[in-house]
Amino acid sequence: MLSKRYCGIVLGALGVSMAGQAQDYLPVLQYHHVSASSPKSTSVTPEQFTEHMDYLKNAGFQVVDLRSALDDLKAHKPLPEKSVAISFDDAYRSIYQAGFPIMKERNFPFTVFINTEPVERHSRSFLTWEQMKEMEASGGVFANHTIRHPYMLRKEKGETDQDWLARMTHEVDTVEQLLNKHLGHSPKMLAYPYGESNRQIRDMMKDRGIMAFGQQSGVVSAESDFENLPRFPASGAYATLSTLKTKLNAKPMPLLSEETGGDFATDQPVSIRLTFKEGKYRLKDMACYVAGQGKASLNWVSKTEVVATANKPFGVGRGRINCTMPDNSGKHYYWYSNVWIRSSADQGYVSEKS
Q1: What's the CA gap between 89 and 152, in Å, rounded?
Q2: Contact at 8 Å (CB) between 193 and 175?
């Protein structure tokens, strides 16, 4: 398996050299179920998934191994032009039954983030270790999605902060041990359940050399936070081909800095302060959208600095602001997203300062 992956990297590098073109960012697609009978909000039908994969192939996209591409980006090494990575969350058996044959036929590598509790109890709705081994032989990689898929920032009743952190450490380390036990290795990647993390959790990832993904949308670049990476959802409402094309043409927002106010929202509207790098950008064409609210108000405090503010506070749950801006060619959009958690007292979230 590793030799095939390395061969793919070498061939990709040769392709970059021959074409004289390269890419310094990576869109990562996120799927869950590949099924017509599972919840629509987290599913693509086999027909939709085939349409997506056919588009990638016919439009000349280079589907790359996720961990190898992340390593290259972090090391400032170029990726092949039109690189993209494919990922799945939750280890549903429909990935093996309906998704895997489609990717195998096209020779596409992919990553599945697995929560191991249903795998270990042999749930018929989830993958088996034997199926994972079979998928590994054709480009599949299996990574960490914790044991039980918890809200990682919520404490159980009566739990201290120390107890909570110990439980989260167990959730992460146990899956790493199971990956090594059953598959012989771990790619050292994790997807946060529900996309939720804080500085303590992200520091845990960094200490273990684990690259981790949230649920904010956008593309990965060398300047990304490799303990809180973005992906593009490609299921449910985001499964249309037109939506997919827009995301595949996204670039990282050219930011010098960002200020979000932390991981938690309050009873006041959230705001973000974005400072742009020097360059010629279509700043007047930038727009920011607040989940469930429409456009955010933009206050340009200088020629290269803007504050985007939501119109009203978020309700309890997760809220986000997405900002996009066309590039000078008009063919691509710069993309930025941030997610906040608005908690309620009965949910048991850890302190916002944790």
Answers
A1: 16
A2: no
pLDDT in tens, 320-335: 999 999 999 989 999 9
DSSP letters spanning 15-39: HHHHHT--BSEEEEEEE-EE-SSS-
- How confident is the model at residue 41, as a pLDDT? 84
pLDDT of residue 351: 77
Dihedral (C-alpha) 193, 65, 135, 123: value to the nearest 10 degrees? 0
Per CATH, which fold does 2-250 belong to?
Answer: TIM Barrel (3.20.20)
Name which of 49, 63, 142, 51 is nearest 97 in CA terms: 49
- Tell me how far CA of residue 319 lies from CA of 62, 66, 72, 154, 343, in angstroms: 32, 27, 31, 17, 11
Cβ neighbours of 160 (radius 10 Å): 9
Phi, psi of 84 (to 5 degrees): -150, 150
Count other C-beta atoms under 10 Å from residue 113's C-beta: 25
Q: Which two tokens stand for residue 272?
A: 């973000």
> Is residue 208 classed exposed, middle or buried when 0-12, 13-18 and 19+ CB atoms within 10 A define those classes?
middle
Domain with CATH 3.20.20.370 in the chain: 2-250
**Rounded distance between C-alpha atoms, residue 213 and residue 192, angstroms:** 6
Looking at the structure, give the CATH architecture of the domain made up of residues 255-347.
Sandwich (2.60)
**pLDDT 10s digits, 200-259:** 999 999 999 999 999 999 999 999 999 999 999 999 889 999 999 999 999 999 999 999
| Spatial distance between the Cα atoms of 106 and 121, rounded to a whole number of angstroms | 32
The residues of the chain that CATH labels 2.60.40.10 are: 255-347
Q: Give counts: helices (H), strands (E), the chain.
A: 10, 20
In terms of C-beta density within 10 A (0-12 exposed, 13-18 middle, 19 or more buried), how is residue 110 classed? buried
Whether 123 shows a pLDDT value over 90: the answer reads yes
